[in-house]
């Protein structure tokens, strides 16, 4: 059995839950930043920094998924 064969890691999932909760709160901040960035890009579409702000916000929104994937990958079957 290789590493790709074992997809079910409940211990990693349970250990990652508190950190996923914190990442979820960070993603809420990311949603707010994303909304502000979209509004700013509508007002001034020539600003390149707004595009970078929106990209960072999207990564913040995806944070809980990245945290859970990392935790489940660290725990062996």
UniProtKB/TrEMBL annotation:
It comes from the Eukaryota. InterPro entries: TAXIMIN_1/2 (IPR055283). The chain crosses the membrane at residues 12-32, 38-61. Keywords: Membrane, Transmembrane, Transmembrane helix. PANTHER family: SIGNALING PEPTIDE TAXIMIN 1 (PTHR33834:SF2), SIGNALING PEPTIDE TAXIMIN 2 (PTHR33834). This is Uncharacterized protein.
